[in-house]
Design goal:
Elements: H1 7-15, E1 24-27, E2 40-41, E3 51-52, E4 56-59, E5 73-81, E6 95-99, E7 111-114, E8 131-134, E9 144-145, E10 156-158, H2 166-174, E11 179-182, E12 187-193, E13 197-198, E14 209-210, H3 213-223, E15 227-234, H4 238-249, E16 255-259, H5 269-276, E17 278-284, E18 287-288, E19 292-298, E20 301-306, H6 310-329, E21 339-343, E22 347-348, E23 353-363, E24 366-371, H7 380-385, E25 388-392, E26 398-399, E27 404-409
Parallel strand pairs: 5-6, 12-15, 12-16, 13-14, 16-20, 18-23, 21-24
Antiparallel strand pairs: 1-11, 2-10, 3-9, 4-6, 4-7, 5-8, 17-19, 19-20, 21-27, 22-26, 23-24, 23-25, 25-27
Length: about 400
């Protein structure tokens, strides 16, 4: 039970406890960043009618073959077609319709001549002139966006498993979708813990520190698409911890996340409360920072106890919680694939799988990495300044300057 397991084994053990939840239907405007649980096909052609891509005149291209500024072709204006109307009267030879961008091309006309190539430029009044001089020839199809040019009815437009972007929402709206089937946003209850921890906004008495983990973890959850339910600070008191965790499960979370209280300190009660009211799968991982990291079930609800040191909490979240959120969201539950950089300086660790704060810059020869600030796991300043975590595999105690290192960008 108290053996030290590898990062990979810990990730695998954790993921076994999570299943992709059933899909639900949500309004389109609530679907951003959720993962589609259905294939979407075009219900009709897009555009659904031939329309003009210019403000100008719809006409027969054959009528204007010889048109030039010196010898304009004069056509009779027989219709006005603002966007939003639907013309049914055909355009005959020798005629033109004034047409606006997005308006349907009338029957008969096979092209649009932009207003800039006519004597009607610029369109100044709404009154329809009797005739127009055309200064340039046109070819069939010119400035006509054909029905079905973008999408044909029945064509797949977005596949199940796609994480919905703002541009996807635009496309879905363009085919009239008001709701979509998605995997629900994971609900996560979280607490920080420790008698020294005070929420920002309250006076700081001697011996106390402000709670950085609850705000940071809440933000991390939101940034990864979860619904965060932060429930405050647990005191170092087993009774109070039990009661608070019990209240937490009333919110029906996919899992409970805590920070601190899972190490070997006399007052580290969080881990013990979980062990006495469920099962503890492991509580130590062979990594740096973040060795005291507990996972188990509290009354059948998965529980992840991140370390108290803020940087360890951040790294534990990135390494273990992100894959859970991906799995629950319907995405492949893999950690982000690392990129590689050349080290500008030697880096050292202690043989545990290490996630060191670094800065990676892009140079003409590729990414180059160096360490950022003090690596103590309580120091958030260097984490905030770092733009990457440099990853040393377990068993590697040093990497010399000039060698490759794996990294993840963190900002
Ligand atoms: P623990 O896991 O309870 O032994 O805490 C490890 C270290 O993390 C201690 O120095 C705590 O004061 C610190 N710590 C725990 N929780 C927080 C928190 N929410 N915000 C900032 N530091 C914390
Ligand atoms: Mg503590």
């Amino acid at each position: 039970m108290d053996s030290l397991i590898s990062v990979k084994e810990a990730q695998e053990r954790i993921l076994q406890y999570f299943q992709v939840p059933p899909a639900e239907t949500v309004p389109l405007e609530h679907s951003l960043a959720l993962v589609l649980a259905e294939d979407i096909t075009a219900p009709f052609d897009l555009p659904s009618f031939n329309n003009s891509s210019m403000d100008g005149f719809a006409l027969h291209s054959e009528d204007v073959q010889s048109a030039s500024p010196e010898q304009p072709v004069i056509l009779k204006i027989v219709q006005d077609i603002p966007a939003g109307t639907f013309p049914v009267t055909p355009i005959h030879r020798g005629e033109a319709a004034r047409i606006m961008t997005g308006a349907p091309v009338p029957p008969g006309a096979d092209c649009v001549v932009p207003v800039e190539h006519t004597d009607a430029y610029p369109f100044s009044q709404t009154a329809l002139p009797g005739e127009v001089r055309i200064f340039a020839p046109a070819h069939p199809g010119q400035y006509v966006r054909r029905k079905g040019q973008d999408l044909q009815a029945g064509e797949p437009i977005i596949r199940s498993g796609t994480q919905i972007t703002p541009q996807d929402i635009g496309l879905l709206a363009s085919v009239g979708k008001t709701e979509v089937r998605v995997f629900p946003r994971p609900r996560v209850v979280l607490f920080s813990s420790g008698n020294e921890i005070v929420p920002p906004g309250q006076p700081l008495e001697p011996g106390k520190i402000y709670d950085s983990n609850l705000p940071m973890l809440t933000a991390l959850l939101k940034a990864h698409g979860a619904l965060a339910i932060p429930l405050g600070v647990l005191r170092d008191d087993p009774e109070e911890i039990l009661q608070s965790l019990e209240q937490g499960i009333e919110h029906h979370p996919a899992f409970i996340l805590t920070s601190a209280g899972v190490s070997v300190g006399t007052y580290d009660f969080v881990r013990r409360v979980v062990e006495e009211n469920g099962t503890l799968n492991f509580w130590r991982v062979n990594m740096r920072p973040g060795k005291p990291l507990a996972f188990g079930l509290f009354k059948n609800i998965p529980f992840i106890g991140l370390p108290g040191n803020p940087v360890s909490s951040f790294v534990g979240f990135t390494v273990f919680v992100v894959p859970i959120l991906k799995k629950l969201s319907g995405l492949p539950p893999t950690p982000p694939p690392p990129q590689t950089a050349i080290l500008e300086e030697a880096i050292e660790s202690d043989g545990r799988e290490s996630y060191l704060r670094g800065n990676v810059t892009l140079t003409p020869t590729g990414y180059r990495a160096k360490l950022e600030g003090h690596q103590g796991s309580g120091n958030l300043t260097s984490l905030s300044k770092a733009n990457a975590l440099l990853i040393l595999p377990s068993g590697v105690k040093s990497l010399p300057a000039g060698t490759e290192v794996n990294f993840w960008f963190i900002r």
